[in-house]
Amino acid sequence: MADWVNPLRETIPEGWETWFVAALAAGVGVLVALVVHHIVFRILKKLASSSDNDADNIVVRHLARPSKWAMVALGIVLAAREVPALEAGWEKIAGFVMPALIGWIALAIMRALVAAMELRADIDVADNLSARRRRTRLAIFSRIGTFVIVFITIGLMLLSIPGVRDIGVTLMASAGLAALAVGAAAQPALKALIGGLQMALTEPIRIDDVVIIDGEWGKIEDIRTTYVVVRIWDERRLVVPVNKFLEETFQNWTRKGSELLGTVFLHLDPLADVDRLRAEFERQVEANENWDKRVKAVQVTETTLDSMELRLLMSAKDAPTAFDLRCQIREGMLAFIRENMPEAIAVRRVASAAEAIWEAGEPGKTSNRD
Fold first, then answer.
1. What is the DSSP string of 199-260?
2. What is the DSSP letter of 101?
3. Known InterPro entries for this protein (predicted)?
4. Contact yes or no for 336/342 (Cβ under 8 A)
């Protein structure tokens, strides 16, 4: 023992010397561990900053905190080898602390890897189908991995408590009824876990997919183990259970690609000049930057006694762009009709019976118009 410790030992009451030595050894071990951790991670941060790969910074940032406490535990373990009292105290809590540290480190490594892989899946590009697929799988598998790691960690921590371990042994001995009870209690968690795996493998939806569900139009913002967050067009959030996407019908507008066809319906007079309207529509579409130059068409899809339905068909690169294009073309065509073709506006024609007979010129009928 160092000479500077002896004066301190003389001031300690009798019977407390063992605990003083244990606390002092633990403090020295923790201090040395913190110093080593600071030096090592300072070097790692400099190396990561000098690297062109952002993934290095992500890994270092995620591992900094759990590795710090792991180094503290390592310092206490090394000190406990030299101090029997500290070793006895550490053995009582090691079964609870070590699984927690290992689980924390495992979570940090998994999240660092997921964050690094997300950098390679940029969904802000035009053709982001494969990137959205990777993002979705990463999100789902990271949730499942988190659940598994936390479940195993808590199980190992509980097994370090003698009373809990004895209960577990008793349950294993009476496996019949206990298995049914455990299965019933774990059914929601297992159902969510299986639903997440099914979502990842079948991919009915992906991150940033455009969907219509429960009459709401929105984008898939986040996919959790038990629910999906849909960002509605007006910034609301719709929280939908995962099973709803697996068991019920919904619309996915970007299942194979983001390109969409948009329609505008105009109800006009049956005698309106369709060729002139077609020429104006094509002029407006070709001049609009939201059109992706794939589809443009004008068709009469329905007629009634007083009007005809004119469908304007156009294409765009994605759903928001298609919505803007439809609105702009609708406004432009209505303005053109109002200013240049007012006769194309649909009107309801009402005629008396005498006028109808006169205009029809039915034989044997006379008119008082003369």
1. HHHH-SS-TT-EEEETTEEEEEEEE-SSEEEEEETTS-EEEEEHHHHHHS--EETTSS-S-E
2. H
3. LSM_dom_sf, MscS_beta-dom_sf, MscS_channel_2nd
4. no
* Contact (Cβ atoms closer than 8 angstroms) between residue 200 and residue 243: no
Which of 306, 313, 295, 297 lies closest to 272 in space, CA to CA?
306
Q: Output the pLDDT for position 123.
A: 67
Nearest to 115 by CA among 154, 167, 59: 59
Q: Across the 370 residues of the chain, what is the mean pLDDT of every consecutive 10-residue run?
A: 52 60 82 90 86 80 89 86 79 84 91 84 67 80 85 82 61 51 60 73 85 91 87 92 87 85 94 94 95 94 91 91 94 95 83 56 46
Tokens for 341, please give them.
Answer: 């073709």
Six-digit token string for 274: 């369709």
Contact indicator for 66, 101 with CB cutoff of 8 Å: yes
3-class secondary structure, 51: coil
- Separation between Cα atoms, residue 165 and residue 171, nearest integer Å: 10
DSSP β-bridge partners for residue 223: 228
CB distance 146 to 196 below 8 Å: no
Which residues sit opposite 92 in a β-bridge? none
